Amino acid sequence: MPADSSPEPTALLPLRWGTYRGRYLAGILFILGGMIGLQAASTQFLVPLITGTALHTIGWWIMPAAGWRRHLVVFPCGVQIWLLLTGPQSVWTLAIPYLAWLLIRHRPLKSYGTVLFVIAGGVVVATVSSEYSGMLPALVFALAICALSAWIARLIAGIGRIPSKIREEAR
What we know:
7 helices
């Protein structure tokens, strides 16, 4: 690890249960799975509203982070995934879970400017597609922008690799 980079802050937190990598991967899977699954709801098929919201909430709760951070993001992110039911014109609201991601990943304030990429991507999606039939491609594009922005935020924070002790534990 280069001398100018610091370790992932959440990897150094003591966990009461599970491994860092296991909770991180399960959290991402539940957050994204709940968000995307909720989009399958319709006026005749309401089950995805409950299951998607529950999975999304559980995903935020199991991410390795300080407890208050995980609890703080659940409500705004839960509201946001319901806003996505209005179609591609609301994809810019992914700025809310993106900011939540930066918070639970313990990113410094200087990295929060990367939210502008997420908002800009949402504006592009809204101008290209306004029909709900275009929601899946809109989400794929917007989530790719979120992932890229998160990596940029990580670089801005100067975070290097996961400490070797954590990597060995995950094996």
